[in-house]
Design brief:
single chain, two-stranded antiparallel sheet, 2 domains
Length: 387
């Protein structure tokens, strides 16, 4: 039987080369050089504004390209643009991983970008759903660091399917808290009711019941504990899931929960665990690392970093206070899960959530982070078996 070579997908480099040839890079060079007065391969933002009014550019560029170029002008961070950046924008070059992350979350995820000629003056036309698009652009600005990624995401995201993991896990956690409050006679307090006899909480004397190492995340001790975790899950988790998809967020969240219980069993073996702080701090640490590594490319990056650090420090301080508060049941809730969840977020989440353009050194970082996390989990499991 003859092999159907036509069924083989084309090589990405060949496709990219053909696209560049079709779009006539030489014509872009001619347009660009008209505003490159000294021939150094870059033009100022002021010259770029003039370039955006060039009739030749308006005839060959679509709305998406013009919007990205306009965004370069509107951002104070940029004083010039190189010809290579201009080519990347004109050719709509996005990495395969970023396209797949945006386009494959649903069968109808992709919104086609037309090549119709649109005058530059019509870029501010009202959209079919301006509130939704404004929300998507806000998420793109806050959780993506590259302007091309932001614009591509804002143009293609349709919220179909919507975020599922974070809303579902939040709903279950709130439901479990209400149930524990209903069956408890003590009522809701700052650090109660404490579900002492729940089959879900992690207890050091019940380590043989392995489900407790993960399912303790569904039980919370007090409304302050619940409120903070739910607030972070909704404010940080849902936008992260919109950008990265439910699978990545679920992996990081679960990794943080597991790291919290295993770390507590090693470093604070007498403490019990309730709450989803391990998973929450894994998401928070991953996003914090994203801000820290790319704060120069993010709006008010330093202030966001300081705000997240302040809120996290306040919550950890409350957890430390709660750990050493006397309880009638003589059971003390550990705070190690917060720290271990953050470590899991930094080790596993930093590479997953950093960006979509994985360079070679980031590829090695991914394997190093995976090896470190796997090694720590294996050590903790052996510790619980033999200690």
């Amino acid at each position: 039987m003859a092999t159907n070579w036509r069924a083989r997908p084309p090589d990405n480099d060949v496709v990219c080369l053909r696209q560049l040839q079709d779009l006539e890079v030489d014509r872009w060079r001619l347009i660009f050089d008209k505003y490159d007065e000294i021939g150094c391969g870059e033009i100022t933002v002021w010259a770029l504004r003039q370039l955006l009014q060039d009739p030749d550019l308006l005839r060959m560029a679509d709305r998406h390209v013009l919007t990205v170029l306009d965004m370069k002008c509107a951002t104070n961070r940029y004083t010039f643009i190189t010809f290579q950046e201009f080519v990347n924008i004109m050719s709509n070059r996005r990495t395969t991983s970023f396209r797949l992350a945006v386009e494959t979350e649903g069968p109808r995820r992709l919104v086609p970008v037309t090549r119709d000629i649109v005058p530059y003056q019509t870029l501010d036309q009202p959209e079919t759903n301006p509130l939704f698009r404004a929300m998507v652009r806000r998420v793109a600005r806050e959780f993506l660091t590259d302007d091309l990624d932001r614009q591509y995401y804002a143009d293609h995201y349709t919220c179909c399917p919507p975020p599922l993991f974070v809303p579902l896990i939040t709903f279950v956690e709130v439901g479990c808290f209400l149930y524990n409050n209903a069956v408890s006679s003590g009522g809701v307090t700052v650090n109660g009711p404490f579900p002492t006899h729940s089959m879900l909480i992690y207890r050091p004397d019940r380590r043989i019941e392995v489900w407790r190492f993960v399912l303790y995340m569904f039980v919370h001790a007090g409304w302050v504990h619940l409120f903070f975790n739910m607030l972070i899950q909704v404010v940080v988790g849902i936008p992260l899931e919109m950008v990265h998809g439910p699978c990545r967020i679920a992996v990081i969240y679960t990794a943080g929960v597991l790291a919290g219980s295993l770390g507590t069993s090693v470093f604070d073996p007498g403490a019990v665990l309730v709450g989803a702080s391990g998973g929450v701090y894994a998401l928070l640490a991953g996003h914090l690392a994203n801000i820290m590594l790319n704060y120069t490319n993010m709006e008010l990056g330093f202030l966001k970093f300081a705000a997240i650090l302040f809120i996290a420090s306040a919550d950890v301080g409350f957890a430390v206070w709660d750990r050493y508060t006397e309880r009638p049941s003589k059971m003390y809730v550990g705070y190690t899960a917060h720290l271990m969840g953050a470590v899991a977020g930094l080790s596993v989440g930093v590479v997953v959530l950093k960006n979509f353009e994985q360079k070679l050194h980031e590829y090695y970082m991914w394997w190093v982070a995976l090896a470190v996390y796997t090694g720590c989990v294996a050590f903790s499991i052996l510790w619980n078996i033999y200690y």
